[in-house]
User: Which sequence fits this backbone?
């Protein structure tokens, strides 16, 4: 293959991987493979002098989505040039002092403070245009609401979720398919939420790493003085140290030792010149500024032999491949397993049992396969489920191929389904762990959800089971009886409908006034009217409810439950018969849900899309090029700011 053709191939492959990773939270190639292909592309571009317009070397980050207001940055936010060589980092200083700091792995956010208060927060976006997330930023755990400095202040930093908080959040999710892949993805989704209540629950923190502007302040040309100033204002500042060519290697070793137990995700270091004016004088390339450089850890890589692929089934039927290999020492621990994520990655690595592979720890934490040295490509994808023996099927979702069990009666599906049903956010039946449920299924105590409410039939057998006794049995029955008093949204969540989480279940049930008949017969178009419900979720809900077996399961359960309804709105119904759409950031209300509650309390309706029946679109930015604004203008639907809406309707 000639070099030009290879460039085009690499551009397509890397863009496909980036789209899957950033927009769809899917991995179709490993991080190591992405870096390797990216470096190959850079080298070919330099060698040939040809760069494709859509080359990932010419772009920064993800494109801003339409659901959040967009705003252009005053100056482009360029990514940094990078190296894995400590000696190159040392030489880069060119005999000068520098500031060495963590390169945190989260979502970059630009904050603007005016009169001592947060005025605006914008994500990095594509480097030129970001998303306005001001209300979400106000929920960051460690962000000061007010600072001493009253002039205009603009700073950049990284929004992150710690490993420990990430693990706690994942521990609360019983369904493996719904667990988050890594803190970076979780943080990115949390900061860009349309509902900042969710952002607050995710425990996002902010670490400042760069001062852009501080009105009328003189920092004597010192980068460290800028960091000190930000710390004095109450910001958590990324850990940083002054370095020289003589001590930088020692300081890198300090960071290297610390990262193994550092709770904040980091994928390397950043080195910048202490002399701010000197750094600025160096200018920039088309993509990289010359005042800073990123250092990425040279991954500790070990060669080993692939022994087997373990296939693990889940509640939805997804069967995850896990590589089992000869144990190796990596970053101070013994490693013998690594997730391969999906069939796409299995195939890209051309895996086969007995292959010689290299493994590493992504960010020095998560075991991954780096390369397959022998690439025998003889791994057989299971034709049957490893748990039930049912037929499997490869399905493509968001450009990533994954393996699924097609047997609705699969034991693994049953165990995971029952585990979700009894979980805290669903029916909340204490004492029914996954292991206990597995035993009950094996013994034939439970075949369907309704059987959980009649375990007293098996009292004698349960009392005699290992780990049980009279007291444990009594506590279990009491917990089950307590669970009878619940809400429809808990039941809907517990049924495990695809893409229906706790919050979505509440939205759907509230929209249909907790009437199960209305939910069962709702159309996809009716569901799509709910703010936050898109076509995918609506389609999954309708498909579930159209299944006769699912309906039968629900109606078997209803006599066992006491479903409490949400209180109906009281007061003057001045907005009865009117329909509104809310989009963009809000100023007077904490979030869209709060405004929605006000509208619904007065008899109005809030939908997710603009139609001919929409009374008005509420958007503080009527110049936005969002799809909702365009649709409103096409249909001649009024676009009102919050203030205009309040004056007109409240």
Assistant:
């Amino acid at each position: 293959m000639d070099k030009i053709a290879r460039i085009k191939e690499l551009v397509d492959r890397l863009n496909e991987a980036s789209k899957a990773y950033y927009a769809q939270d899917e991995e179709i190639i490993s991080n190591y493979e992405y870096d390797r292909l990216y470096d190959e592309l850079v080298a070919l571009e330099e060698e040939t002098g040809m760069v494709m317009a859509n080359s990932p070397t010419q772009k920064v980050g993800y494109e801003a989505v339409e659901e959040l207001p967009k705003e252009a940055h005053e100056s482009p936010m360029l990514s940094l040039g990078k190296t894995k060589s400590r000696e190159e980092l040392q030489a880069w200083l060119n005999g000068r002092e520098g500031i060495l700091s963590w390169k945190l792995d989260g979502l970059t956010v630009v904050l603007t403070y005016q009169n001592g208060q947060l005025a605006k927060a914008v994500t990095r976006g594509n480097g030129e245009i970001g998303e306005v997330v001001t209300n979400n930023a106000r929920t960051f755990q460690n962000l000061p609401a007010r600072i001493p400095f009253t002039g205009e202040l603009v700073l950049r930093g990284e929004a992150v979720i710690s490993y420990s908080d990430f693990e706690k959040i994942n521990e609360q999710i019983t369904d493996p398919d719904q667990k988050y892949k890594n803190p970076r993805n979780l943080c990115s989704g949390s900061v860009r939420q349309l509902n900042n209540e969710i952002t607050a629950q995710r425990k996002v923190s902010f670490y400042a790493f760069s001062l852009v502007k501080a009105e009328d302040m003189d920092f004597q040309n010192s980068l460290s003085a800028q960091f000190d100033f930000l710390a004095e204002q109450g910001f958590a500042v990324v850990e940083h140290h002054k370095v020289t060519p003589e001590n930088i290697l020692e300081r890198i070793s300090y960071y290297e030792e610390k990262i193994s137990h550092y709770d904040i995700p980091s994928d390397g270091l950043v080195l910048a010149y202490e002399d701010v004016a000197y750094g600025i004088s160096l200018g920039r390339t088309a993509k990289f500024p010359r005042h800073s450089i990123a250092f990425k850890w040279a991954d500790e890589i070990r060669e080993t032999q692939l022994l087997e692929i373990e296939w693990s089934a889940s509640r939805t039927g997804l069967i995850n491949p896990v590589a089992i290999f000869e144990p190796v020492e990596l970053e101070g621990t013994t490693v013998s397993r690594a997730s391969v994520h999906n069939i796409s990655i299995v195939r890209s690595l051309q895996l086969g049992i007995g292959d010689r592979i290299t493994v590493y720890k992504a960010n020095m934490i998560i075991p991954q396969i780096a390369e397959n040295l022998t690439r025998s490509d003889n791994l057989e994808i299971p034709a049957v489920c490893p748990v039930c023996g049912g037929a499997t099927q490869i399905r493509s979702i968001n450009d990533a191929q994954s393996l699924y069990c097609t047997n609705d009666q699969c034991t693994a599906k049953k165990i995971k389904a029952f585990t979700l049903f009894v979980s805290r956010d669903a029916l909340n039946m204490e004492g029914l762990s996954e292991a206990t449920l597995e035993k009950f299924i094996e013994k034939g105590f439970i075949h369907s959800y309704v059987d959980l409410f009649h375990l007293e039939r098996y009292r004698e057998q349960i009392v005699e089971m290992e780990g049980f006794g009279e007291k444990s049995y009594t506590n279990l029955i009491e917990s089950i009886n307590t669970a009878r008093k619940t809400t429809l949204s808990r039941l809907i969540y517990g049924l495990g409908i695809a893409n229906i989480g706790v919050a979505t279940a509440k939205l759907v049930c509230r929209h249909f006034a907790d009437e199960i008949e209305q939910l069962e017969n709702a159309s996809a178009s009716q569901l799509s009217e709910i703010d936050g419900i898109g076509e995918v979720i609506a389609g999954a809900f309708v498909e579930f409810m159209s299944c006769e077996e699912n309906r039968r399961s629900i109606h078997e359960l209803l006599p066992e439950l006491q479903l409490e309804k949400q209180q109906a709105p009281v007061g003057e119904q001045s907005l009865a018969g009117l329909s509104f759409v809310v989009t963009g950031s809000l100023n007077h209300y904490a979030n869209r849900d709060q405004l929605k509650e006000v509208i619904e309390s007065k008899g109005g309706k809030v939908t997710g899309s603009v139609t001919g029946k929409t009374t008005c679109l509420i958007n503080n930015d009527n110049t936005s090029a969002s799809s909702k604004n365009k649709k409103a203008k096409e249909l001649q639907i009024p676009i009102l700011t919050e203030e205009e809406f309040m004056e007109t309707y409240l």
The chain is about 35% helix and 20% strand.
